[in-house]
Fold these 2 entries.
Entry 1:
Amino acid sequence: MATLFEKIIARQIPATIVYEDDETLAFRDIHPAAPVHILVVPKKPIENITAASAEDINLLGKCLLVCRTVAEMEGLTDYRVVTNNGAGVGQSVFHLHFHVLGGRSFMWPPG
Ligand code: 5GP
């Protein structure tokens, strides 16, 4: 069954899309945890980092560069990029995604 993010990629569910290319999509998180909170996803349905394979190496790098692109588009110089890998650390949508968070200060380490 298609995940929520596959449905957003397929335009079956609306989202505020801020960037798209042939391999990735970026859209605003519906429950923003910061003034800027964008999700960057590969269009290829990979569950998470654990499920990625060696053939995904370029796609994973591409996702990180798209994180930089959307941060720049939002006027951010300082920002956090996070991926939750597994339900035990908070992954709720099992389609790989990178949270790009900015516009406020953050604690380290995260709680
Ligand atoms: P995770 O918990 O898997 O790391 O992150 C999933 C993210 O997806 C959460 O931050 C959550 O707010 C966001 N989210 C859940 N449902 C929707 C939705 O329908 N649209 C959008 N744009 N974001 C969603």
Entry 2:
Amino acid sequence: MPTVEIDGRPIEVENGTTVIEAADRLGIEIPHYCWHPGLSISGNCRMCLVDIEKSPKLQIACNTRVNDGMVVRTDSERTKTAQKAVLEFLLINHPIDCPVCDQAGECKLQEYYMDYDRQRSRIELPDKVRKKKAVPVGPLVMLDQERCILCARCTRFLDEVTQTHELAIHQRGDHAEIRLAPGKTVDNPYAGSIVDICPVGALTSRDFRFRARVWYLQKTDSVCGACANGCNVEVYHREGQVYRFLPRANPEVNEYWMCDAGRLSVHGLQGEARLTMVLARAAEAFAPAEWDATLDAVSARLRSARAAAVVVSARATNEETYLASRLARALSARLAGVSWSPADATGDDFLLKADKNPNGMGLAQQGIEQTGVLDAVLAGIERGEIDAAVVLRSDLVQWLGRERVAPLLERLDYLVVIDTDGCETAQYANVVLPIGTYLETDGTFMNHAGRVQRLRQAIVPPGEARPGWQVLADLVGRLGEEDVPSSAAATFAALAGSCAAFEGLDYDAVGAQGAPAAG
Ligand code: SF4
């Protein structure tokens, strides 16, 4: 394996490693626009020029493979002069409209200008080449042609990853510009990814632009729950509101990308139907209730049931699922799993899965059966054998049909619904317990390939809602179970100690990139 020295620091790397990759491993940032680890090398922006000993000319770090004994300087006077010159060229026709540009705060032109340039423009504004601004090129994407630096990241993504070829570079010289191919719009299922990788404000998200300045937002690493793939995401939020998901690189799951359905699913997690208070039925209507008194009443009522059932969906976390099992055990109740996807749900052979449940594999690995047991539970209710039920994150009325389920729910003497939203099933409940979405709790999902991945609480649940694991642990404790976990991490440890698929795992082992299920 060759050893290269970069800015005086040696590193041994595999054959074929480029200088920009070797520097990255040393924590040395070589500025770049067109290079992206998920795309082919274009080498057009020239921002990554570096000084290589014995080479008469500067070389681009993105397309230069290291040789044994190579000596590289990323901060020589020649390199600094080149970086300034490249930035001056890139900015010649740039409109410098940073105050009204939504990329401000995460724009590589702004950042590199401050880090490597800081010279006054020699071009007066009226002399700049003008191009079109705010051109909608797809449902999710807005194009500003005069901010574009022609790095070709967007066109390479559309050519190489989605192979849909909607954008191309037209014209030449300083009139070159990104344009739609004739008859096309950027409306493929991964269109939002070109906004993620555009290094400047030329492509912005029609869903997010002008909704928040990015420097006001906080970022939390988590996982998208819109389908069984479990794409790794960064959740951007402020004061209890989530503004956007961006993909987080994970070569085992989603590389550098995510689909638009997952990206937009953030809005469905904070709609007007969210439950914000405990509700207990008094006569015909619901009335707000206290957590402690309600949990006391619920546990007492469930304990006195003739026979109870617990239903948990594949939208619950592994921790919630484990505690639902403990709840069923404490009540000697039937435990049924359920998962649901819309009839028109589709998937593809890239990231999108037709299974829109994020934790179906976790449910299965915990030994919770679905259809057969659920049918048996519903039959038991119909025969009057089961008189009480706890339903967790499962809108049975919507998923199985009102005609089939509503009469059965009406037959129950006691129904507890634990959910995030005032779903149709909740209308039949005696008690509704509000819980947080997967953005509002710590926990884990297991994706379709059996990879256990961490969810980190980004925001607190609204109103009086609590994390699901906490509500279930409080109920289980009231039913006399011992060693009830007092945190999501402790719940996962208890699960790992009792279920072979999670054996040996803890939150540290799962880490930022997830871990395969044991065995
Ligand atoms: Fe690069 Fe953005 Fe221009 Fe596409 S629109 S070529 S990603 S700067």
